[in-house]
Design brief:
- The chain is α/β, with parallel strands linked by helices.
- The chain has a single domain (4-264), classed as Rossmann fold, CATH 3.40.50.
- It has helices at residues 12-21, 34-45, 61-72, 93-114, 127-131, 137-145, 165-188, 205-211, 216-224, 234-245, 263-269; strands spanning 4-8, 26-31, 50-55, 77-82, 120-124, 193-199, 256-259.
- The chain is globular and about 55 Å long.
- Bound molecules: nicotinamide-adenine-dinucleotide.
- Nicotinamide-adenine-dinucleotide binds next to helix 1 and helix 8.
């Protein structure tokens, strides 16, 4: 038996983190697109890792439960990397809320039930959640603590209160940050830690869909006018994940780390200010 990493989402960010942290482990990678999970498994197995692909839909609790049960066949789950998600140009409002908001909340809850003592997790949120205006303390508490099956019934998540897919994505990512805070309290009772990482524009298939989508110019302007002046790479996100998931991060839990080349700073106080 090995220690097991659950990797939700066979994308570039997920693979970069798994390559950084998953040596000596069994990695079970789940993705809605089986071909993506298989491609990551092949690439990593050919680089000396031990990866098994499974089909998994983050928007379904039963699919998440099957994914966890599959992973448990190989040993104790000691790491979670959640890098599955859809972007504003890839999906309608309803799907963004079901996958990015509800699905992430269910995954954190379900893995929190079985995570081994000393276990660690990261979930990929987004700078988008940081750019959105502050919510009320009551709304933040609702996103953090509402039982998962009631989350999508919250008034602030009803269609009449959501302007477009970008707004839905921002709400989902704000929810990820709040959910991680609430979950970290539960994970702490097991000696386990969970954090969020909020990347800016990272070149991946998801970001390339954004560059080529309706908001393409908006995104290109964003990385041109951020202090770093460029988009980031998945391996730079893995640098942060390594800190959070290793012993050096032992005092960090319930936190959200912004890694966006300063785009959010420029949005508030620099040339990206609307
Ligand atoms: N790339 C960026 O610029 C950026 C910025 C901020 C946040 N993020 C977030 O990072 C995460 C990973 O994205 P990425 O950029 O690595 O993209 P990616 O396209 O490389 O990977 C995303 C993966 O998630 C999978 N997926 C989509 N819906 C799913 C579902 N319902 N169930 C299971 N898997 C599903 C896709 O099939 C894909 O393999 C996402 O949550 C995204 O919102 C990305």
């Amino acid at each position: 038996m090995k220690n097991v990493m659950i990797l939700a989402g066979a994308g570039q960010i997920g693979m970069a983190i798994a390559r950084r942290m998953g040596y000596r482990m069994k990695i079970v990678v789940g993705d809605k697109k089986p071909e993506n999970a298989q491609a990551v498994a092949r690439t990593m197995n050919e680089a000396g890792f031990d990866v098994t692909p499974v089909e998994m839909d983050l928007s379904s609790r039963s699919s998440i439960q099957n994914f966890i049960a599959e992973a448990q066949k190989y040993g104790n789950i000691t790491m979670l990397v959640n890098a599955a998600g859809v972007s504003p140009s890839q999906a309608p409002v309803e799907a963004i809320l079901k996958v990015d908001l509800y699905g992430t909340a269910v995954l954190l809850e379900e893995v929190g039930r079985v995570i081994a003592p000393g276990g660690v997790g990261v979930t990929i949120s987004s700078q988008s959640g940081h750019r959105m205006k502050q919510l009320t303390p009551e709304e933040d508490a609702q996103l953090a603590c509402t039982p998962t099956e009631n989350l999508l019934k919250l008034p602030l998540l009803q269609p009449e209160n959501i302007r477009d897919t970008l707004h839905a994505y921002q709400l989902a990512k704000r929810c990820n940050e709040k959910r991680v805070m609430a979950e970290s309290v539960k994970w702490g009772t097991k000696g386990a830690r969970i954090n969020a990482i909020s990347p800016g524009i990272i070149v991946t298939p998801l970001a390339i869909d954004e560059f080529n989508g309706a908001r393409g110019e908006f995104y290109k302007n964003m990385f041109a006018k951020c202090p770093a002046g460029r988009p980031g790479t998945a391996d730079e996100v893995a640098n942060v994940a390594e800190l959070l998931m290793s012993e050096k991060g032992a005092f960090i839990t319930g936190a959200d780390f912004l890694i966006d080349g300063g785009a959010t700073a420029s949005y508030f106080y620099g040339p990206l200010k609307p």
